[in-house]
């Protein structure tokens, strides 16, 4: 049946749409409870220098702990978190918790690890965003230069003048702004010049085809991916930006990336995202050698 929404909006109510609305509402409730009950945890994935494969930093990736103590991946709730605005309190918590954890890791290992945190459009659009970030850094003791805020192309495209101003303010204080999933959004190359971005993250969908030049099951050819990755790296290096290749799973992919330039890598080849304590095991042998 159809349901009237106001004068001229008519929404067709299908069972599928109803199901989706219910799922959304359920997810929103789960998120609300998770925030109230502290049911998020952060996992950390190492970022390595491709040249020597030493860990130089970590990316914070949030997970939700459900009623049965299962870890729920962000893919199932980030969209709802953004739409409902719940991504703001969640994101504040992730930022604070990950800064705290990385400061502890730096102290335990003696390594000057950097921290990358994903920031949603709704978060950065808040008038107090820059202030909140600087306050968290001051409270936890993480140096400004050791924090990278990862924004997506669409988040940057949505940003108004006041938002960009906050990013410039943060950059001037030393905080790094990186462009996540580069190449998957509505890439407008001109914003690389005008936005306060200092590194690019090559999306893992392009990295996947490296070392697989004969093409993939979905019809995408590995040599197309190689051309794209090579161009993105070239672009980054010519603009004086740092680059990180994400989703590196094989030694072949690592070797191809190494041959293309001087950058960083992240992916299952080195480690999946893990709890901070597990990272310690990975880092401690490195720090004593
Ligand atoms: P992202 O920022 O692009 O993070 C990289 C994603 O790729 C992570 O998925 C990571 O686990 C996965 N990954 C890393 N290496 C490999 C690999 O070698 N192979 C494959 N197949 N995957 C790899 P995850 O943790 O499920 O996060 C998904 C997305 O959720 C993130 O993508 C990010 O956009 C979002 N997200 C995660 N945490 C947060 C957060 O705290 N705040 C916000 N706003 N978004 C977050
Ligand atoms: Mg990211
Ligand atoms: Mg990414
Ligand atoms: Mg991604």
UniProtKB/TrEMBL annotation:
Residues 24-287 form the EAL domain. This is PAS domain S-box-containing protein/diguanylate cyclase (GGDEF) domain-containing protein.
